[in-house]
């Protein structure tokens, strides 16, 4: 027993080999990470070029026209009818069709304004506050104006912008 305690345990040579192996693998991985972008085609290494349907696509050479629409004031749909919403719209169209669409809007202003008042007065407070609610309202107005003005299904109204949007 005294002999077993007197001999110190011999250090394992496997630990040094394992550490050396980890260092070599780390250096190879770093070198491969550095060299991969230079060896692969550029279309695979850059950011994805795929755009979704929800992203705004930059318009190349497209000129926009802006048609102001009358201010509309409605009571917000709540129990006491104490709050109201005041909006002033701008209709965004292609500049080449601005004159034609302006005349069409003026000709149908009573129908458009009547629908807009009815539509907005049906909205509750949660529907007219926050970015999601406002964006949804803009899209609904755009879709219905296109439907009323262009029965052929064309979407000549590009967007609806709020010049004023006040809830009081």
Give a topology summary.
Elements: H1 2-6, H2 14-39, H3 42-45, E1 64-75, E2 84-94, H4 98-107, H5 109-121, H6 130-149, E3 157-167
Antiparallel strand pairs: 1-2, 2-3
Helix pairs in contact: 5-6
Task: Describe what you observe in this structure.
- A three-stranded antiparallel sheet has the order 1-2-3, with helices on one face.
- It has 168 residues and is α+β, with helices and mostly antiparallel strands.
- The longest helix is centred in the first third of the chain and has 26 residues, at 14-39.
- Helices cover 46% and strands 20% of the residues.
- Helix 5 (109-121) packs antiparallel against helix 6 (130-149).
- The chain is built from six helices and three strands, in the order αααββαααβ.
- Mean pLDDT is 80; it is low at 43-55.
- It starts with a helix and ends with a strand.
- The radius of gyration is 33 Å and the shape is elongated.
- A hairpin with an 8-residue loop joins strand 1 and strand 2.
- It has a domain at 64-167: Tetrahydropterin Synthase, Chain A (2-Layer Sandwich), CATH 3.30.479.30.
């Amino acid at each position: 027993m005294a002999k077993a305690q007197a001999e110190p345990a011999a250090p394992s040579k496997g630990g040094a080999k394992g550490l050396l192996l980890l260092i070599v693998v780390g250096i190879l991985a770093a070198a491969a990470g550095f060299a991969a972008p230079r060896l692969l085609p550029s279309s695979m290494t850059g950011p994805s070029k795929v755009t979704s349907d929800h992203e705004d696509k930059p318009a190349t050479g497209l000129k926009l026209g802006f048609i102001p629409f009358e201010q509309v004031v409605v009571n917000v749909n709540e129990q006491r009818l104490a709050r109201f919403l005041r909006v002033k719209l701008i209709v965004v169209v292609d500049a080449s069709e601005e004159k034609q669409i302006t005349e069409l809007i003026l000709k149908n202003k009573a129908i458009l304004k009547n629908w807009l008042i009815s539509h907005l007065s049906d909205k509750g407070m949660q529907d007219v506050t926050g970015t999601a609610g406002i964006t949804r309202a803009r899209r609904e107005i755009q879709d219905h104006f296109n439907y009323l003005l262009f029965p052929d299904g064309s979407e000549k109204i590009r967007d609806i912008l709020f010049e004023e949007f006040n809830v009081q």
